[in-house]
Amino acid sequence: MATEYLEHKLALLPDRPGCYLMKDINAKIIYVGKAKNLKNRVRSYFKSSHEGKTAKLVSEIRDFETIVTSTNKEAFLLEITLIQKHQPYFNIKLKKGTGYPYIKLTNERDPKMIITGQIKKDGGFYFGPYPNVYAAEETLNFLQKVYPLRRCNGYQGRPCLYYHMGQCLGACFKEIPEEKYAQQIKHIKSFLNGNVKTVKKQLTQKMDAAAQDLKFERAAELRDQIHYIEQTVEKQKIISNDRTPRDLFNFYVDKGWISIQVFFIRQARLMKREKRIFPCIGTPEEELATFILQFYNRKNNVLPREILVPEDVDQESLSSILHVPFRTPQRGVKHDLLKMAHDNAQLSLEEKFRLMELDNRQTVGAQKQIFDALCLPYGHVIESFDHSHIQGADAVSAMISFVDGQPAKANYRKYKIKDILEQHNGADESANTREVIYRRYSRLLKEHKPLPDLILMDGGLIELRVILDVLHNELGIHIPVAGMVKDDHHSTSHLITGEQGQIVPLDRKSQGFYLLQRIQDEVHRFAITFHRQTHSKNALSSQLESVKGVGPKTRIKLLKHYGSVKKIKDAPIDDLMKLGISQTTAQAIKLSLSVTPVRKIGK
Fold first, then answer.
1. How far is residue 72 from each of residues 76, 281, 324, measured CA to CA in Å?
2. pTM above 0.90, yes or no
3. For the segment 461-484, what is each residue's pLDDT rounded down to a tens digit?
């Protein structure tokens, strides 16, 4: 249901192509889309029923803006630019990795064959993509043995090792005629385009001849070369007599998700498959079109000579942008491949749903059980705290965050307890709790950031009462709080809540209880790890303080550069002197650390 403000904006939408940017309550862009008719498309978000991620998107929209374009093609291009610029949460996010390896023939006077992960407009010839690096390496090794070009760095006045091995034409010590290179490149191109029967036949004849002449080592080499062909170029079954390099895209949609399959057809073979699954916000055909543009915008992608897609995809706009023909096969092998891609997309999505259902029981479902046990409405964010110290020394606190039953490590925080030894015994858990709770939530209030839906404290009734006091009486906020109590074996026992510490009923065999154990173990691990790091640095600083000639600046240098006693003890005196430390002081440091026992860190 659109607000009155949005209703006014919807009434002003134009009947023209363009892009729209959806914004949340903080004016952050959360989705970018394109449309042939902005008025119809944007209104559909607020006037139609939705499910899944689309429903969640609509629930978070508080404003939008539009950009009108002259043509649908311009809308396509603008959408890609806006997605890359703003990285909206609800849009497709393709990783910009290196993709798949290619074999490249360089454009040089003395050309080379190399494996590359980057495609450049440098006049070179690129072949691939290959299913994996191993396949590309095996193919390259074979070609370098059968059709050598240049493997050395160029002229050096003497033959290189590869020349003696028969894998270099000898550019290292002589000038190779261009005609010789052209002949070799012709054979290489023919081979990489799938014409391998002639080469294989020639190799088989040479192998038989070598065996008859009792040259068994040579026969074995030729046998291995034939094997390379079978393992790389001929590994995939030929699917047609048409050797045109082409990519094929198809999709399957269900429950607000879209599954896309990409088939790479090279040398008349299905060389590689790629799949993607993500929420379907717009129409499936528009989502596929946007995906295709982003797919070929990756750094390492060579456009094929033809792209096959299902009907109803805007082939004209895509073709004009990518300058590659788009087609929908109606019959034959290519039509069967398109159907196979659709079937694979369906299987992938059904598998995704099964895994999501299982994961949901262990994450969102488990978190819901905790909130239900506390008689609270479901909340997304749980924050948990724990302390760590050694007999009051080096006291620290740590906070972890779980979102919908999964750790959100980007939200973890570490706290060094400030001046705790001057005010209290360092082992005063209630004082530690008071300080860290106040610091955490006073900052969130000051920065106007969202508060968690539940706070879990690793401790008992004392810590629980301290948190409630800080939140209610000092900060004036009300966040549900519970204490995670451990048994005599230091394992999770139960939850308590309220000023009186009422025990919360939670089935010990439920997923909710298992999630509670994971949270308590994780916050304990995080606190202990942080404490050990802090204590180790403080122990090192204390040891260095006793060394004559080592002042605060020198200690800071050593701590920053080495970080541990062992590394300083193992460092040569010359290395210490490179930090600006005199030889006498460096020797004193080494002597002091070699006789001073290092105190072990306990839990």
1. 6, 19, 17
2. no
3. 888 999 999 999 999 999 999 999
